[in-house]
Amino acid sequence: MYRMGIMTFLLTEENNPTKLDRIKCLQIALIHDLAECIVGDLTPHCGVSPEEKHRREDEAMKTISGLTGIAGDRMYELYKEYEDQSSPEAKFAKDLDRYDMILQAFEYEKRENTPKKCQEFFTATEGKFDHPFIQDLVKELYLQREIFEKHTVVNGHV
Asked: Where is the HD domain (predicted)?
């Protein structure tokens, strides 16, 4: 959430042709996974149905929102906006979330010196990035990943 929030600062006049509300993007980035502090990071490998995951997260966000006083309504509204993908800012945050996932996967590959070990994350997000700025970041990440793989093979580590 934090890295996604920081990445919203990279939006500029030049790479934001749709004029996304940068503050709203930041708010959604910070709120979108807040329910995980109660329910945990439920993945498809956890054996929890998508419906049950959504129910648990929604309940957790209602709890969190109730604890935050007057900010709670806005927090819940932004969470629902992200879940429903009902605004351009929510869709941008989804792109950021996917990008953050593959960036983290690449960081694991580099740390463990295991090119392509986390390919499943790249495969799962392929073709799912909509915002041109994020598409450019993804292209650069793929390039860096390719360079890493070639460098590792050349040096005999794979």
From this structure: 1-129
**Residue 28 burial by CB count (10 A; 0-12/13-18/19+): exposed, middle or buried?**
buried
Decide: 110 and 148 in contact? Cβ < 8 Å: yes
Reply yes or no on whether the pLDDT at 157 is more than 60: no
Number of residues in the chain: 158
Please say if the pLDDT value at position 75 is more than 90: yes
- How many Å apart are CA 158 and CA 152, to the nearest integer? 6
Q: State how far the Cα of 82 lies from the Cα of 136, in Å rounded to an integer.
A: 22
Percent of the chain with pLDDT over 70: 96
Residue with tokens 């927090």: 75
Contact yes or no for 109/117 (Cβ under 8 A): yes
pLDDT above 80: residue 44? no
Q: Using H for helix, E for strand and C for coil, what is the string for 128-146?
A: CCCCHHHHHHHHHHHHHHH
C-alpha distances in angstroms, 156 versus 72, 113, 116, 135, 150? 54, 11, 15, 32, 10
**Measuring CA to CA, which residue among 55, 76, 130, 132 is closest to residue 98?**
130
**What is the value of pTM for the model shown?**
0.89
- Give the residue-averaged pLDDT of 39-52: 84
